[in-house]
Amino acid sequence: MDILRSVRAVAEAEGPGVVDWDRAAAAAKDATEPGSVALTDAEREGYAADVRDARSRLADVAGIEFDVPDTVEVQNRHHWIDASVGTFRRVMDPIEAAAADPGGPDGAFDATPGPVPGAAFARDLSRVANTGSMAFALGFLARNVLGQYDPLLLADEPDADHGLYFVHPNIVAVAAALDVDYPRFRRWIAFHEVTHAAEFGAAPWLSEYLESRVERGIEGMVGGAGGAGRGLDPDAFAELQTAMIAVEGYAEVLMDRAFDGEYADLRRKLDERRGGGGPIRRLAQRLLGLGLKRRQYERGAAFFRHVADERGIEAAGAVWERAENLPTAAEIDDPGAWIVRVDP
Fold this sequence. Notes:
- Helix content is about 65%, strand content about 5%.
- It is built from 15 helices and 3 strands.
């Protein structure tokens, strides 16, 4: 870890975009210990068995057929940054394009006949700030993410294989910090991430649904900023948030009902970790919206526990049959209304 080199990478941000992605990734890695992925044979087989068993158990319990991605990687923190920076970049692409051409294709909003004094300096300063913010986000997440199912939203190739990642040094460190058995904790994380593969496998429409809401929301922001568009699209963001509540909540409930061991202590200790930490960690969580993600877990899990208790976990899977079966924002807090509407 080299903090000085990380700061230097941010300060040297350059290029036409609002973020220098290469330097953001480099700065994040310079500020983050990679951790070891020197797996023993037993650990390597353990990861493979965890994923294999999770797929089998989840398919049986949920009553759905799905495949795990061909890409299953045990990563260190630097590997995760390299794998994830592309996702951040794809989300930012429309904003960067708008910043590069604020007047649009006909130049309707370019009222400046020549260069503005200090404009280049302001752009450079903004790029440095944006690059630093992105480096901070990548580094913080790399030190805290345990596993990730990556549906490759907004990918250039719509049929690209999804990814399943495990950040090994974080799993080992958190198991030790929580004072829980590492192989059991690793297996529980595998069940959670494979559950997301089950959701996207059961709902082929889900990736396109989420992508369309992200694109509508970003296009609205870009249009609003430039004066040419319709401004913020609150419906798109609301639909995206509600869908993510369903994704996270279903995963929480299904993994608990499918996991082949005791998990109450794991759930309690991990929940405490999500809400704990020192002031800097809590500030970072707030800035990155991780508190919102925690509330998504809680609200979504409460919804699906009610549905599963009333109709069974297989009936709860009706949410993935079609987009119209997603709960509305009101139904998240009134699962009985969803049951009446969908009648699973």
